[in-house]
Amino acid sequence: MNRTGKTLLLIGATSDIGRATGLVYAMAGWDLQLAGRNLEAVRREADDIGTRSGASVSVHHLDILDTSRFEDFCGALPTLPDTVVCVVGQLGEQQRAERELDHATQVLRTNFEGPALLLGLIAERFAKRGSGTIIGISSVAGDRGRGSNYVYGAAKAGLSAFLSGLRNRLASAGVRVLTVKPGFVRTRMTAAMKLPPLLTAEPGQVADAIFSASEMKKQREVIYVRGLWWPIMLAIRSIPEPIFKRLRL
User: Fold this and answer.
1) Nearest 5 degrees, angle CA 206-CA 210-CA 211?
2) What pLDDT sits at residue 1?
3) Can you list the domains of the chain with their CATH numbers?
4) Contact of 155 with 147, CB cutoff 8 Å
5) For residue 2, pLDDT beyond 70
6) What does pTM read for this prediction?
7) Beta-bridge partners for 222
8) What amino acid positions are annotated as catalytic residues?
């Protein structure tokens, strides 16, 4: 049951963060539009969320790499949502990206090109209406290029810059643009990694941060889910380049 009269479009609905985010909004009384590449998996998520929350949930096919279909995707939505959250991402493998152009291309397009172009289209519709909230999931990896993951980091840096520019342009149009940087998150994507507990969030914590940011009008527009990341990344950005190169991060 829609207790708020609001609708969320969730892009990347079958990811761990996407699943948690959809449930948080549904439990708060929002209707959902779930989008993803694997329509069968999206339907399973829709059934689960709908059963738990009683929310109205529609499903929509979207391949974030098929940019030629974005206009049709937006036009086919049953209603223009109040908020869009894009949690699409692919960590990829840095060493493989150094060797294989196709893999590097996929990482760059999945994390930057596709999300930026789609959110840009939706932003134009929000601006024409005069309201809406756009939330993009970026990464602390984009705050400064590091040798260990600079292809992924470059893509996320591009998304952060795009969201910043969009936020600046639409500031007077009634459209909010938020950038969320989760840091390490315990998901399927990071299952093989040894993660530092103090800097690692659970998907539910990221979902709560996204929802809180969208509901609190005065909150920061760039949100680090774990507060420790803000001073850490400030320090990392401040390291002189000759020293930074010797750190082998």
Assistant:
1) 120
2) 59
3) 7-247 (3.40.50.720)
4) no
5) no
6) 0.92
7) 179
8) 152
